[in-house]
Design goal:
Distance between the termini: 55 Å
Order of helices and strands: EEEHHHHHEEHHEEH
Strand order of the largest sheet: 1-4-5
Mean pLDDT: 89
Number of strands: 7
Shape: globular
Low-confidence stretches: none
Structural class: mainly alpha
């Protein structure tokens, strides 16, 4: 029982050029994030040029950070296949690396341009979530984020021999659709933040909501993923999630104490 997915990761080839589903979806995710950032940025009082200039750097930083985290996490493989480090169309982007790249870029950009950091991070929270939801479609097609074997009727069965599964043993067997689980959680989180975006009184609150809620999802949903354990039975993503939840809590308390009650 399960849902069979036999889609070729490559849409078409022309000579030496190949367009993959992963590349196409990542571009759609970037366009979605930019669209949301422009709308929320305008509501927050930022000029269109300010948002577009920031997003051009954010996209580069997110891509580099996400790939770097992925390569480091699976260095045992890439150490033997150095040429594949830059083959992004095969999949392999770690969300935590992308978030880290975005965070650093926003802080530096805001400092250089004299813009309010926390307000910019609130804009990025909604843009990031929107991009992540769309981006996970690539994982559904490719299977690079396939979960553990399951007997549930909605398990995904990847049959294409070129699907970049985490383990070859996961091919032709039903696996947890981890990417779909995360898309559902992120969709609910986006709805919550979208409704709260005009109600919050403290700048930075939306971004901390995002950090806490996404970290919570990654911690629990990672139990159905196939990744190596680092310590105490927890995977890398779970340790990062715990760290992010702690940081969000501390920063949330700091902002509440810093902000006058009348605001």
């Amino acid at each position: 029982m399960g849902i069979t997915i036999g889609i070729d990761p490559i849409i078409f080839r022309v000579g030496g050029f190949a367009l993959g589903w992963y590349s196409l979806v990542v571009m759609l995710a970037a366009a979605t994030g930019i669209t949301v950032a422009l709308k929320v940025g305008a509501e927050r009082g930022f000029k269109k040029d300010e948002v577009l200039n920031l997003m051009s750097w954010v996209l580069i930083a997110a891509l580099v950070g996400a790939r770097l985290f992925h390569v480091v996490d699976r260095w045992d493989y890439y150490a033997q296949n150095l040429s594949q480090i830059f083959m992004l169309w095969h999949g392999g982007l770690a969300i935590w690396g992308g978030v880290t790249g975005v965070l650093v870029t926003v802080v530096v950009y805001a400092h250089l341009k004299g813009l309010p950091i926390w307000r910019l991070l609130d804009v990025m929270a909604l843009a990031l979530l929107s991009g992540q939801i769309v981006g996970r479609i690539a994982c559904v097609i490719n299977g690079d984020e396939a979960g553990k074997v399951t007997s549930l009727p909605w398990g995904f069965i990847y049959t294409n021999p070129d699907s970049p599964l985490p383990l070859e043993s996961l091919r032709n067997v039903p696996t947890h659709p981890y990417a779909v689980y995360e898309m559902i959680w992120n969709g609910l989180t986006l709805l919550f933040l979208w409704r709260m975006r005009k109600r919050v009184k403290v700048e930075g609150q939306l971004f901390l909501y995002y950090g806490a809620l996404y970290s919570m999802a990654r911690f629990f949903l990672t139990y159905v993923r196939v990744q190596k354990e680092y310590a105490f039975g927890l995977q890398q993503a779970q340790w990062i999630a715990l760290l992010m939840m702690a940081v969000a809590l501390v920063m949330g308390l700091y902002l509440l104490r810093k902000t006058p009650q009348r605001r």
